[in-house]
Specification:
seven-stranded parallel sheet, alpha/beta, elongated, five-stranded parallel sheet, about 350 residues, about 15% strand
Length: about 350
């Protein structure tokens, strides 16, 4: 079987090479790293459907001929890419959400599209808990003090940076998928209580209380952590009205998507002193929020671990192994459309 594995500067080809080496020598596997700097001006309807991609479709078209399996992480997959190899039988994208793939084009051609849901769940859950600790212990204010030349004069300096224990506090998790579930398990070790709002999931953990509405969660939690998907329904779900429902002094954490939060409303709530602080790994206006000494900002590093990349490549290798053996695929993104 002929396989084309396309890496990029974020996920270099060696991750795919290490994982696909487990397939043995029975396959013809070609690897290359797409050039993210090659110009690409989306023009066709298929190209305009893509988001968060690296490189240009032409680079794939130049190399895909004869491939039966296409593997990408961030490379753009359009209708023209798919048509460049009539032998294609499987498309693999090492991401949870294949926004760099024209899903309609893949489905119209009867091709299964497999992805890697949850590959970054451990990493994002770890970062979320780190944010909780940083906010509770007033780390942003202390870090700014040091960055601005502040000196630690004696053992009593901590009086200027009094924080809170996590034990006994309530964490509200919005979205109880693979990440939210792992966050709930982690904070149990800190002695926190957990409440959850997710209308699409039934929580089966006796130590986690599921609430019927988002409003109820906002009123109940000392910390609110967002793990919902970015959809039209969840856009700006944390707006001025939602922020007003949160407990005075509560903290907001967003490691999901920037579209979930109305950042101007958040900045207003922070300026008014209603919130104790916020930590965001995803945001639109970092300059505005960075003015606040009770805000933590990181440059979308939630899934940026070596283990996350290796796990994604391993998940893809497992799907290709199933495909080659004629076994059912597991993580088919367009399963409903294909009825497979």
């Amino acid at each position: 079987m002929k396989i084309l594995a396309v890496g990029d500067w974020y996920m270099p080809p060696h991750y795919f090479a290490d994982a696909l080496a487990t397939l043995g020598g029975a396959h013809d596997i070609r690897y290359f790293e797409i050039d993210a700097n090659r110009p690409f001006d989306p023009a066709s309807p298929s190209e305009r459907k893509l988001r968060e991609y690296l490189g240009s479709p032409e680079q794939l078209i130049e190399r895909i001929k004869g491939a039966e399996v296409l593997v990408v992480q961030g490379a753009p997959v359009t209708d023209e890419v798919l048509d460049a190899s009539p032998e294609l039988g499987l498309v693999c994208c090492a991401r949870g959400g294949p926004v760099n793939v024209d899903i309609d084009a893949v489905t119209d051609r009867g091709l299964p599209l497999v992805t890697t849901p949850g590959k970054n769940a451990e990493a994002v859950a770890d970062l979320t808990v780190a944010f909780l600790v940083m906010l509770a212990r007033v780390i942003p204010k202390g870090q700014r003090f040091i960055d601005q030349g502040g000196q630690v004069g004696d053992n009593w300096q901590g009086a200027h940076f009094m924080g809170h224990d996590l034990r006994g506090r309530t964490l509200g998790i919005v979205g109880y998928g693979q990440i939210g579930l792992r966050v709930a398990k982690r904070v149990r070790g800190f002695g926190m209580q957990t409440v959850v709002y997710d209308p699409y999931v039934t929580v089966e953990d006796a130590e986690v209380r599921q609430l019927d509405t988002l409003d109820e969660l906002l009123r109940s939690a000392d910390f609110v952590s967002l793990h919902a998907r970015a959809t039209a329904e969840t856009e700006s779900m944390i707006d001025a009205e939602a922020l007003a429902l949160m407990r005075p002094g509560a903290f907001l954490v967003n490691t999901a998507r920037e579209t979930l939060v109305d950042e101007e409303a958040l900045d207003g709530a922070l300026a008014a002193g209603r919130l104790g602080g916020a930590a965001l790994d995803v945001f639109t206006d970092g300059e505005m929020l960075a003015r606040r000494e009770n805000v933590v900002l990181t440059p979308h590093v939630g899934g940026a671990t070596y283990e996350t990349l290796a796990r994604g490549a391993d998940m893809i290798a497992a799907e290709i192994r199933r495909f080659a053996a004629g076994e059912p695929l597991i993580n088919v993104f367009n399963r409903d459309a294909l009825a497979v």
